[in-house]
Amino acid sequence: MNIEIANRLVNLRKANNLSQEALAEKLGISRQAVSKWERAEAAPDMENLILLSKLYGISLDELLKTENEIRETETASFAGGDTTESTGDGPEEYVHVGFQGVHVKDKNGEVHVGWNGIHVDDKKKDDHVHIDKNGVYVNGQKYDKEWFSHHHHFPILLVTLILYLVVGILWDAWHPGWLLFFFVPVWDSLMEAVHKKDARCFAWPVLVTQVYLCLGFFKSCWHPGWVVFLTIPLYYSLITWYRAKKEPKE
């Protein structure tokens, strides 16, 4: 793990008046694990990162961002395809698109879509949602053990691969034809949601990412196309509201 992030973990722990033993107890891990994080010998997994960000009252982005990344964001660097665009509404509101993923932040919350998954912070509801290959985490609690699992009833991956080859060979559209692969997790999660009758299983953030990239590549509408990411906290908020409404009152 980056030594800068390790030092930040040390400072955050001390700022919250926690010993390594006390932090380990709160996270349900060993003191040795905490010690290894703070010596940069190991890194917290995503579940513990979410718990740490909630415990310290900061976003995952603030917890993991390095000084180099901060400088890139502040200077709006375009090197290597990275772009940062202010929404014009304040210094804490921006859109960052780079190799590590897409990060959107405004007064209502934050959305990060990257290689390791998708994370949403809804500041109004104080909800934290993280989705990756290991499952769906809402406020640190794991809800689905088989996220992105393959559904054998329909070979969606094979069909998508064939379509991609057809588009690439016939129209030389290898880019942005790769956007077709977003249909794999979207389809699988839709089947999972229908099977479990739980809308939380549907990969709405993945669908939103696909829509955003299509708007950007086909319509050059990166801004204000980023607004579609704000539907993610709205989606989960509506699900929470609907489920609470349906639950029988005691």
Q: What is the multimeric organization of the chains shown?
A: single chain
Inertia-based shape: globular
**Which spans have pLDDT < 50 for at least 5 consecutive residues?**
69-91, 147-152
Strand proportion? 15-25%
Number of strands: 8
Secondary structure blueprint with pairings:
Elements: H1 3-15, H2 20-27, H3 31-38, H4 46-56, H5 60-64, H6 67-75, E1 83-86, E2 94-98, E3 101-106, E4 109-114, E5 117-122, E6 127-132, E7 135-138, E8 141-144, H7 156-171, H8 174-177, H9 183-196, H10 204-219, H11 222-225, H12 231-246
Antiparallel strand pairs: 1-2, 2-3, 3-4, 4-5, 5-6, 6-7, 7-8
Helix pairs in contact: 2-3
Write up this protein.
It is built from 12 helices and 8 strands. It is an alpha+beta fold and 250 residues long. The protein has an 8-stranded antiparallel sheet, with helices on both faces. The protein is globular. The model is unreliable at 69-91 and 147-152 (pLDDT under 50).
Summarize the structure.
With 250 residues, the protein is an alpha+beta fold. The protein contains 12 helices and 8 strands. The chain has an 8-stranded antiparallel β-sheet with strand order 1-2-3-4-5-6-7-8, sandwiched between helices.
